[in-house]
Amino acid sequence: MRLKNSLRFKNLILSLATFCVSAASLNLNAAEVNVYSYRQPFLIQPIFDAFTKETGVNVNVVFAKKGLAERLVREGKNSPADLIFTVDIGRLIEVVNKGVVQSVSSEVLANNIPSQYRDPEGNWFGLTTRTRSIYASKDRVDLEKITSYEDLAKPEWKGKICTRSGKHAYNLALISSMISHHGEEKATQWLKAVKGNLARKPQGNDRAQVKAIKEGVCDLSLGNNYYYGKMINNKEQYEWANAVHLTFPNQGDRGTHVNISGMALTKSSPNKGDAVKLMEFLSSELAQKMYSEQNYEYPVNQSVAPSGLLQSWGNFRPDTLALSEIAKNRKLAAKLVDQVAFDE
User: Fold this and answer.
1) Is the pLDDT of residue 175 over 50?
2) Is 302 helix (H, G, I), strand (E, B) or coil?
3) d(CA 246, CA 132)
4) Strands 258-266, 125-137: parallel, antiparallel or unpaired by DSSP?
5) CA-CA distance, 150 to 167, in Å (whole number)?
6) What is the torsional sign of CA 204, 306, 33, 270?
7) Which helix (H) or strand (E) holds 265?
8) I want to staple 68 with a disulfide (CB 3.0 to 4.6 A). Which of 36, 155, 183, 236 is the partner?
């Protein structure tokens, strides 16, 4: 009897141990995707939650304002990151050049994202688009006189333009596009003329320039379109937005310069399959609609209409030149900013 009881006890212990090991294994193997993001989590968390609800795959986010590309380099093949999210084509090219991402071949991504908003080699993909618009004073600017980026160089705007640093990624992308369309010499002349029209030394962010227009410091500024939405929905900044028109330059020719927020699959991705599923989900109609409504950005998926607020600003034609081509001029653009002493 004692022998039987002893055997039963041992079998019970063995069964419990097996259960614990199995449970631990399930926990360790729980489906997840790890994201390194330059975008604040609250901007994209609702979309990640929708993905988890649909697939059962959890999304973990590490946010930082800078240094994530360098972190991927340090971590190497042991990095837990599957995806990196960033803004601006220049920053996407940076992670490619650092060798920390890998290409993705996906019919879903190819169908959902226009070719000008993704890398030809599949190393990065656009998530949303944003225009580099001209903000113009409602009281002091005749909109018929400011219909293009080229118009910013006209003598009539001397002392009437405000902008952030020429070295900022958003302005470098615009300058790069000017080089692509006009060549280095004409782009340099344009940049020098815009420098001569500045009301003050470049400073602050895009919203600070709209505030300056409201205060009469200047009449025109450059800024991304989503800041207009942010200001409209901010009690303290509503009057800034109400003082300006948001314009879409170059509608009579090549179209408005457009930049992107984007994503790339890391070279070390430990959860590649689920990471690609997340990338595809983010390009879907559901996720793109959520992006547009929450972040005041335009869907990269052409099947999705912009949010009602964005539609109220009017339709526009974007520049169709591939961002991969524009990005090739980024270093030259930075050189020209120094050459004309734009920020001084």
Assistant:
1) yes
2) coil
3) 10
4) antiparallel
5) 19
6) negative
7) strand 258-266
8) 36
